[in-house]
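Researcher: I'm comparing several assemblies side by side, and this is the next one on my list. It has 404 residues spread over four chains. Same procedure as the others: predict the full complex and return the structure.
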Amino acid sequence: MKSKASTSEKILDVAQSLIVAGGYNGFSYADISAAIGIRKASIHHHFPTKAELVAVLVDRYRRQAEAGLKSLREQFSSPSEQLQSYSEFWQTCIRDASQSFCVCAMLAGEMQMLPEEVASRVRAHFDNLANWLTSVLQAGVEQDVFRLNKRPADEAQMLMASVHGAMLSARAFGDPALFGTIISAQIAKLLAPERSRTAGAR
Amino acid sequence: MKSKASTSEKILDVAQSLIVAGGYNGFSYADISAAIGIRKASIHHHFPTKAELVAVLVDRYRRQAEAGLKSLREQFSSPSEQLQSYSEFWQTCIRDASQSFCVCAMLAGEMQMLPEEVASRVRAHFDNLANWLTSVLQAGVEQDVFRLNKRPADEAQMLMASVHGAMLSARAFGDPALFGTIISAQIAKLLAPERSRTAGAR
DNA sequence: CCTTACCTTCCTACTGGTAGGTAGACAAAC
DNA sequence: GTTTGTCTACCTACCAGTAGGAAGGTAAGG
């Protein structure tokens, strides 16, 4: 009931929390070593180089995010609820996991000095997220729950930027609640102005 | 007609461009040393510790930003033009200075592992910017050019988050133009929907 | 005018510590 | 009996920071 994670997974878990805290240059093999009680050399056995470790980590993160977003679309029929619970997911993360952060948002800032194998994977996650948001907004327009000023793809970029910027602000001000305030208001702007909702849901 | 900057200013200039590229842990005294042709030890003469260097740097950045924002309010009478040219400033930076970035947005991501003397100064800049945006939006509401859904302070936070998030997206996608797309659309959402403007201006 | 003293700036040379990474031995598991 | 995981021990490169001194400017005192 306690630990079932393999060593490599534990390494990735620790590395992820360290990256979230301080970025690519903000952690070392020694840090991971100390955190999980294993020698540095053993980590190199699992992940020969740092670039490879982070590349695998970002790949895993992207897949997890992809799966999470997919399940949100399956779990909630209404696009506005899908957006809402995506927002709530991050609100919870940021509040509970003491100032959490999206790994890829963190790495995006360091893009210019990231190994290419990492940078390309960060880009892939941004693509995925943008596409997911676009299709949710698109569906919302078709169901008449959203009223957009721009094309869904553009509004998706705006929303994604808000999410990442809000994470940054929450950190800068040391105020986890700020994230929720910003994103909720941003989502509210997308909602079509009062109308007897078409479907029976809600 | 060439160089009038003192050594310490050159150090700060180089350090700033290095931080923008890779954050606090992404540069070293050796990097600065190589860039301006001076020995490492000489940099320690001007700035004994790295924390002090960055603290001074962020202070300078905050003052410059403060002055720039103030002059925008003096140069343009219309709040929407003030916002517009603030946006254009960053568009130019990001396009010309090959993927530039706000120093404080960069450091905000690393907040958790920044020396306190740096962190507090980053917070100060975020406060300044939020206050400036709030007062511009406030003025816009009074002049009937902006129609806000939330209190000006909240809308200011939303706008600030969009700006920082858009910088992140521009980097992640390697597309400088994306910044302008996102911010212009965000500003457009604030404008009051068509109305014979009260003042003669514009 | 010249000396003494101080200050600023930069230098060479170095410290202790940490970075990412490697070599090879050992033990358990398949 | 090879593969897998861990270890000790080590490497080179680099990190922030220090010691001590050379070069030059400035200014006071005689």
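Model: For your comparison table: Residues 7, 38-39, 41-42, 45-46 of chain B lie near DNA strand C (CB under 10 Å from a C1').
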